[in-house]
Design goal:
With about 500 residues, the chain is α/β, with parallel strands linked by helices. Strand 3, helix 14 and strand 4 form a beta-alpha-beta unit. Helix 23 packs across helix 24.
Length: about 500
């Protein structure tokens, strides 16, 4: 992409949104007022949209917009062109030559000796071939565009964090799925992460994160699963390392909902610091936000914190998009992201069948070595009989919900809870027997499964009149099981 005189004259507000037309730029930059670094953008405001948003929200979002625009204004024409190419899906992968790789690895080894520490020495003792291996070190070099000191510094932080969250005995090898806890695995399957089936136009993975899951999982669980996704999947292939990935942070808040869960900012900072040590590069970031009052106010702290902790490389490749679900998705399409396998429908509902595809494909392809299913463990239904209360509140006023509970209701917060995920997986194991049974036999199968679930301590809960969760009766449990089987049949027919 070549920058024209008109592009450069439009100022940072226009550059943040690339090739969007002037009206779109004005709409998106209604909060970009005189504190922005370039006065040429003061007129980029839409008065009608300003009226629909309280001043304090405009003021909050203005700071993030100003930060991104300020970073763009500091770039040279060449740097700006490269950043816009990456955002608009026409960027090129890192160009490498054998000479570059040979020289970089040699300088990397020299710098390692200068920065070596106790954790690194322990890793060497465990598996020198792994830690000094070309494939391992090139991940850090490619992430840092072959800047030697930054690459080595990142590797040292990476090993320190790996020891902290996985144990010092695992420094000399890759982390396998068998190293994760049950809660870690539940999060991987929950739908919070989604690797889109279709890559973008430039061949990059598109990774979705849904804000409705923030705060539902413990910080350490978030960190371990982020590690597994980033290191084992998103940076597993040299081509992915050279092209980078595309991040989509998507607001799944429903109109009028107050049920978005957020991590404490201190925990979010710790997660971001950890992710900065993992050599998984995002060469384009899209933060998709609904324009409702509740949505923007709930997202603002996370978005502001995230963009400030991004490296300069990431900030100039970050775009904020505002609108309803259809508008947001068309904006993503304009940036080279396919809507054919989009995991969100036009009403903002995460499509469960689509959201699980990436995980199931990875299992079939053997990416998650070491995984054991419920049947592998010799248990007909491997729920953890943990009676401790889970700190999760998908609806206002939810108290006392256990990890094994199956919640009745709609929405991603309910459907992707650990208990609901295990429930669906369990029924999938019995689907063939149910599908081929007679009508009478189907009823017996449903009743038997209902008894088996309850005998393993599984509770089925629904929202009562007082907005608290109450137990379902036997009839409701059996109807839920039968309905799930019918849904599974429809999903298989679509496939």
């Amino acid at each position: 992409m070549t920058l024209t005189h008109d592009d450069q004259s439009r100022g940072p507000c226009a550059m943040i949104y690339g090739d969007d037309d002037d009206e779109t730029v004005r709409n998106h930059n209604k909060i970009f007022i005189s504190s922005a670094p370039t006065s040429g953008c003061c007129d980029c405001r839409d008065e009608s949209l300003q009226i629909s948003m309280p001043w304090n929200l405009q003021n909050e979002m203005k700071q993030t917009e100003a930060l991104l625009a300020s970073e763009m204004s500091k770039l040279s024409v060449e740097e700006m062109s490269k950043a816009l190419d990456d955002v608009h899906c026409v960027g090129e992968a890192i160009v490498e030559t054998p000479e570059l790789i040979h020289r970089a690895l040699a300088e990397f080894g020299e710098e390692v000796r200068a920065q070596s520490n106790t954790v690194y020495e322990i890793a060497l003792q465990q598996n020198r071939k792994y830690v000094e291996g070309e494939a391992f070190r090139l991940k850090f070099l490619r992430y840092n565009m072959f800047e030697i000191k930054s690459s080595v510094s990142q590797m040292m932080k990476f090993l320190k964090n790996k020891a902290k969250y996985f144990g010092i005995d695992k420094l000399g090898r890759d982390i396998m799925l068998s190293d994760l806890t049950n809660e870690d695995r539940d999060l991987l399957q929950s739908g919070f992460f989604h690797v889109q089936q279709c890559k973008d136009r430039s061949g990059r993975n598109v990774v979705w994160f849904f804000n409705g899951f923030l705060g539902m999982w413990k910080k350490d669980v978030m960190i371990r699963t982020h590690y597994f996704l980033s290191f084992n999947i998103l940076s597993s292939d040299p081509e992915l390392q050279k092209r980078g990935n595309v991040l989509v942070y998507y607001d799944t808040a429903q109109p009028g909902s107050n049920a978005i869960h957020r991590l404490q900012i201190s925990e979010h900072i710790e997660i971001m610091e950890f992710l900065a040590s993992v050599p998984c590069r995002y060469s384009s970031n899209h933060l998709c936000l609904k324009t409702g009052k509740d949505s923007l106010s709930l997202n603002n702290a996370i978005v502001a914190c995230t963009t400030r902790m991004f490296s300069r490389y990431s900030r100039v490749r970050t775009r904020l998009h505002y609108g309803n679900d259809m508008e947001l998705q068309y904006k993503l399409q304009d940036h080279g992201i396919s809507l054919k396998t989009c995991p969100v429908d036009e009403n903002g509902v995460v499509l469960e069948t689509v959201a699980r595809i990436w995980y199931e494909k990875s299992v079939l392809n053997g990416v998650f070595n070491g995984y054991s299913s419920a049947s592998d463990k010799g248990s007909d239904f491997s729920f953890d009989n943990d009676s401790s209360m889970t700190k999760v509140a998908p609806l206002d006023g939810l108290l006392g919900v256990r990890g094994n509970d199956v919640l009745l209701g709609r929405g991603t917060v309910v459907q992707f809870r650990p208990g609901n995920i295990r429930f669906r997986n369990y029924l999938n194991e019995h689907y063939d027997a149910y599908d081929t049974a007679s009508r009478v036999a189907k009823g017996r199968i449903v009743a038997e499964l209902s008894r088996a679930l309850k005998s393993n301590g599984v509770r089925f809960l629904k929202v009562g009149r007082d907005e608290q969760w109450v137990k379902c009766d036997d009839r409701e449990v059996e109807e839920t099981i039968a309905r799930r089987f019918r849904s599974a049949r429809k999903e298989k027919r679509r496939v």
